[in-house]
Amino acid sequence: SVLVFGTLEYGENLFGDSKHLSVEMRTCLSLVMLLVISTSRAIPVDSVREEDPELTAGYFEGDIVLDAAPRNGMSNTSLYWPNGIVYYKIWEGFFDLVQETVIKGAMKTIEDVSCIRYILADDDQPYFVNITGNPGGCYSTVGFTDDIQKYNLEPFPINQGCFRIGTMIHEMLHTLGFYHMQSTFNRDEYVQIVSENINPQYLHNFNKYDKDMVEDFGEAYDYGSVLHYSPIAFSANGEKTIEPLQEIPVGLMGQRVTLSEGDIRKLNKMYNCVEKD
């Protein structure tokens, strides 16, 4: 079965003992979960939006906000959040109660499968993720920057656009220090980039990283990673821009439902977590 919200396949209580969910939030979360599940069943997994808000923000690879100074990727431990604690603020005025609850539910999903903890920043906290809802799509800074950093979710109806649970998790994994799956150093062994179908102005978004820039943590290439582009990402003609070199299930590549098993293992290895039973 496909995990839609929370981490039910791991036997975890969806609501848990989260310190940042009030009673009102928990009640709202229950209703949101039913809505997400029902709409997820109504929308085919392999359906692709004409304009994916992860790709339209105009940043590096679509949704990655880069520092002014060059940084390495996952192999640079300075990009890791100290002690796995991510401080955040949800900027007032952008989201309604349901949307805010879904954002916190996405945080809870990551907490349930790792040692990462999300803590609401107080006024004295010098660095935190600033969660906004500006127009222009979904995007995030990569990794820890020791500053106030961007995380934007343009408001959409629940389970659409930036308010797909998997899209929120995708951006949260960027915040934790992960880049896109298909840009890893050994990707050509697993996918073919179909350059002639890519909009020329976005061709650079398909560049590969060097092995010394990213770390695979001993994990195999993951077609089902929530960080993988869809098969028609940045397409100029509606045709595929990424072709898998192995037979995989329809809708797997580019899924925005939740973390894959590989995503979970990498996250736990990256932050030296003791994996949950």
From TrEMBL:
One of its GO terms (molecular function) is metalloendopeptidase activity. Its EC number is 3.4.24.-. Transmembrane segments: none annotated. Pfam families: Astacin (PF01400). GO terms for biological process: proteolysis. The active site is at E171. CDD domains: ZnMc_astacin_like (cd04280). Gene3D superfamilies: Collagenase (Catalytic Domain) (3.40.390.10). The keyword Hydrolase applies. This is Metalloendopeptidase. It comes from Bactrocera dorsalis.
